[in-house]
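Before the break, one more example. Copy the sequence into your notebook; we will annotate it together after we see the structure.
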Amino acid sequence: MLAGIPVIQMSQIKREYRMDVKNDVVVRALRGVDFFAQEGEFVSVMGPSGSGKSTLMNILGCLDKPTSGTYTLDGIETSKSNSDTFAYIRNRKIGFVFQSFNLLARTTALENVELPLFYRQKEKNKSLNKKDRAIAVLNEVGLGDRMDHFPSQLSGGQQQRVAIARAMVNDPAFILADEPTGNLDTGMTLEIMGLFQQLNNKGKTIIMVTHEPELAVYTKRIITLRDGKLVSDKPVLNRRNAADDLVQWNNTHFRDGSCGSW
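Here is what the structure looks like once it is written out:
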């Protein structure tokens, strides 16, 4: 096990779905997965369709519970948590980033980022200033000059930066990114991967679900699922730097008008 503070500890996670009770038809989506992530890791979750990636992501994100096994997140055992604890965990411990951005169309970038903070209004800590915190994370993702813009006024890459700022605003234990560049072109993809690398270099733990090996090389570790089992867990030995690749891509792209190779 790596040195550091454990953020995620999963032991013998199984998830079964009964599709036909009468005929006792059971789909075993996860078959005893053991997985951990330390503070400051950047992990890719990979595997073919039907491997269990989405099921694992839902359990990691406390959107679903395992049939059996234990999942401890930042010191909280989640497997038997009630709905209120689940809601607390999702709001405070996990920052979600989705492929489709999931921004509210009629609210500004600043208001979108502020939204998770409204769920903390009942806390006794009166020192929390929602606007100041939202401005700080928008500046951190390079959108300090776009905070009054609506999603329709932003590029796809900028919208995803807003979504990442929203994921960060509560200072979660980890960011859970589900195919975060699936709707972006090559240049914007490299921008977002570069941003994730910057955040990870500052200590933020990131778990990214992806089916693209060319994205996984920007992370530090790759776990691979197949048929509901974790079949591989390896460090990335030749990790690429997304900022450098973006410079190379831009040089090629603007020199000859092609999309280049990355």
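Residues 186-201 form the longest helix (16 residues). The chain has a mean pLDDT of 91. Try to locate both features in your own notes.
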